[in-house]
Structures are given as structure tokens and as C-alpha cells.
Amino acid sequence: MSPSRKFNFPHRHLLGIEALSPQDITVLLDLAEEYAILNRGPEKKLSRLRGLTQINLFFETSTRTRTSFELAGKRLGADVINMSVEGSAIKKGETLIDTAMTLNAMQPDIMVVRHPDSGAVDLLSQKVSGSVINAGDGSHAHPTQALLDALTVRRRRGRLEGLKVAICGDILHSRVARSNIQLFLAMGAEVRVVAPPTLLPIAVEKLGVKVHTNMLEGLKDCDIVMMLRLQTERMQGAFVPSLREYFHYFGLDRAKLAAAKGDALIMHPGPMNRGVEIDTDVADDIDRSVIHEQVEMGVAVRMACLEALAPVRDATSADGPAT
Fold it and tell me: What pTM was estimated for this model as a whole?
């Protein structure tokens, strides 16, 4: 049975979590839940986006995000085009605006964009006639990652409201952290950030989070432990003394995890640096780690986002499985 189209999503673009109401978030999670069930069945392909064009424009490499958006679009029946920046005119000096105008002339219905500069996806969205999904821009936002994290948690815990969520590690450079903070707070969770002072944004407490610089204190009685990748490629200077020392104080191992609730879920957006942010034994705990489930939910969430932003189609031509 294919997911129903009875939903209301009043946005043209998905650029960040801050623009979404709790109702908007719930609409996307509910639709993604249906797609998660569909994706585990024998018939995974629908024709919801048949005749529509989806362009994936990635200025940064990302195997997980790009592949899941490609798979999501194809499962919904869209014509999916992956733009390789390495071989494009962008490498020859073409500006972002020139690129946007060129692609817009091809009349894409949806563009999925990842860019190393914060705000670049927002700027591009102002120059195109179709919908734009932010697949990550600089250290600013990664809305679909936050949504898939929320779906993973909701499927395991049945709710988001009232949960204690600890986001640990490189908060300063993480767009994942920012989007998750916004989403979980909007949905009624308590959010803590745990990191060395050098990896905390200035005045981060103004976001509504509780701030800790000690892992045992930060993880105490938490329901969710979300580890972040140490983004050395965005660091200019010495933010940590050494990777070995960072793991000793802020890497997740059994000793630190013991401070959280006995059934606390372990999360990581990937790719993981084992022995730096997380111990292999913890990452591979089949009872508590939901890291692989996060990847699975990524396809369902991105299907929901593509569906929600797609131009309204006649229901009789867009509901059934593709033939």
C-alpha cells in the first residue's frame, strides 16, 4: 500500500529546520514513517514524481547523502541527474549564481544542493523557479539529517517530547548539531551539548541547550547519545591537543556510556572515526546503536521531503506503483 497524499506542507523550499513548525516536522516524519515501511517491502518503487526532474548538485562530496537522495528520487519515479562539480563549469570560474541560472533554464522541479559555504543554498534558492532542498551548507544547516535522526528516535522511543538528548563532540563546526538542536527543542526534548570549550560556539546556551564540558556530567540520565564527527577539514588551528587525548576525554566508550540511561540509544551521522569519536565496541552494539538504522531512515525521510516539495500532481496519475 502506497503512502497517502493527505498532508499539508506549506513551504516551497527546505533550507533549514528553523522555518518549520512542530506540525510541519510531524507531517514530514509521519510521511517518512510510511515510506520506511514501504522500503522494507518487496515493491519499493512508486510513480509519485514521474515526469519531474531532480538535480543533485553537490559541491562537497558525500556518499551517504547524495546516494540516499538519488535512491529516494528514483523510488518516487523522478528523473534524477547527478551534477559532478569536478567536471563542471564551476571549476572553470563560473559563479554560483551563473550555475543556478544555467540549471534553472533546464526547468528542474527540485534541486538538492550541498555547498561548503553557509548561506550558499539559500542564495541559490532565490534564483531558481523550482524547489530547493538543503543537503548541507557549511556549518549552518543539514535539515534532512536532523529529520532522519528524529525519525530514528521516534521509531525506537515512540516520541520525541520529554527525551533527554546529548549531542557530543565538534559542536562548533557541525551543521548536524545545529539542525538537531533546533528540531529536538521544537519537539519538546531537552538538549544538552557536550564538548571541550574550544569546540563550543560562542554563547551556545542562547540556543536553549544545556552546556557541559565533561562527558560523565553531560551524559547523566540521557535517553539519546548523539556523537559527532571531528571535522578537522574545517579547523584552522589547534582545537584539540591530539586525537588520542580527545578520545580519552570526549570519545564515547563503555565507561562514559554508563552515565546515560541503561537503554540509551547511540547515534552518529557518519562517517565515523572509530577510536576518535566513538569506540568500535560501542558503535557496533546491536542492542543500543542505531547508526545503521539512521542510514536506512535517510532514504525514507528524503522521499518524504521530495514528495512534500514536489509540484501538486493529479492524484490519479501519481499514486500507484510505477509500471
Answer: 0.92
